[in-house]
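Hi there,

I know you've been waiting on this one. I reran it after we fixed the sequence typo, so this is the corrected version. Both the input and the resulting structure follow.
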Amino acid sequence: MSDDRTAMSARPLARKIVLGTIVFVATVALLLGMTALIGSDPVGSATVSPPPASAVPGTAGASPSPTFSAEASGTPEASEPAASGGPYEILVGAGDIADCGRDSDAKTADLVDAIEGTVFTAGDNAYPIGSSADFRDCYEPTWGRFLARTRPAPGNHDHLTRLDGYLGYFGAAATPEGTVWYSYDLGTWHIIVLDSNCNPAGGCGPDSKQGRWLSADLEASAALCTLAIWHHPRWSSGEHGSNGEVAPFWRALFDAGADVVVNGHDHDYERFKPQDPDGRVDQDRGLREFVVGTGGTSLRSFDTTANNSALRVAGIHGVIRFELQPAGYGWRFISTTGELTDSGQGSCH
């Protein structure tokens, strides 16, 4: 009889142990299965639920499966004050866009259609060679729908036809000041568009025609906030990697107190911590760089992670939307699948 009582009293304990084990295993599995991107950048956050490979836009097999990574070690960024409220302007766009062999640029164009404001491009607007036919057949049916509100920048593929297709398509919007580098004001912000194809542009250094123009333009601007757009990223973890030829751009912008840089070229999305010209984190004066080569052409994987990369996303197309406020800005990367949102805010220097 005592043996029966012992067995009966042991059963509830055994059930508790088994139930506790099941709960523990399920909790661990749930945590491992989550794909929330929380890096060391408290002013930006990303939420991700990756789609199946078959859901990734573009030709099957030509793009990498979606991958997401954020820096999980290193010195955390100091918190920034929230961007100021008040009236604001919208700037939206991407680089590396129209490709007749794909439908991804049509999907990013649908995103832009739903967003009011000024549209930018970060180069490589029409593949494969930026010819008049490429713009007519590939760009015009999609991103051409908002041509009237587009401010373009040239890329290396646009230069393959000596910018003939680019200049012929965008017309005066591509050279409002007589060159393919130019600037304009958007609300209280100063926007600068540069040509990072340094050889055909006649150089990117401080003594080049473009470099002298940039210096004079920055000196003449009274804007508190400045955002610059060009094609080749100074810093990148993508397959093309960081580009030292555009270092003079970064130096001039940093010295003038600029705030944001937007690039394309690498076919991925990457956000960096604010950096000085030597690639060191600088919360007070550093420029925050966004690589947004996700406008529609084929996507690529990442290579070696660059220093101070805060967020890296491969395998997903999308556009970035900036809310340009009087003394600050907010950003939001919007994917065509609806599975990824990276957003945050910053203050102007």
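Quick highlight: The longest strand covers residues 328-335.

Best,
R. S.
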